[in-house]
Every structure is written in C-alpha cells, then in structure tokens.
C-alpha cells in the first residue's frame, strides 16, 4: 500500500512543479511582450526623427 500512495504523492508533486513553472513562463512571456512593445515604440520614434531630419536635410540641399 505504501508504493501506490508514494506514486500518487510523486505524481501530485510533479503536477505542482509543472504548474509553478507554467506560471513563471507565463509571467516571463508577458514581460518579454512588454519589452518588445517598448522597443517597437522606440524604433518608431527614432524612424520618425530620422524622417524629419532627412526632410530638413533635403530642403537644405535644395536651397543650395
């Protein structure tokens, strides 16, 4: 009777460990998603600044 109970306890413990790891993966995936969104905003902002600078430079060259 000991071995079946031991096997059930180990199975429950294994499921608990998998549950904890799944929660950790979920939290890290959310954090990564926020970082990717922040990076995309920064890249878009830099692209807009580059476009404005290119327009300004083109106007300055046309003025020469």
In summary, what is this structure?
97% of the residues lie in helices and 0% in strands. The chain has one helix and no strands. The mean pLDDT is 95.
Percent in helix? over 70%
Question: Could you tell me the radius of gyration in angstroms?
Answer: 28 Å
Oligomer: single chain
Q: Helix and strand string, N-terminal first?
A: H
| Overall pLDDT metric | 95
Please report the distance between the alpha carbons of the first and last residues: 94 Å
Structural class determined from secondary elements:
mainly alpha
How much strand? under 5%
Shape: rod-shaped
Using DSSP, what is the number of strands? 0
Walkthrough of the structure:
By secondary structure, the chain is mainly alpha-helical. The protein contains 1 helix and no strands. The protein has one helix spanning 2-63. The chain starts with a helix and ends with a helix. The mean pLDDT is 95.
List the helices and strands and how they pair.
Layout: H1 2-63
What attributes does this structure have?
1 helix, 64 residues, rod-shaped
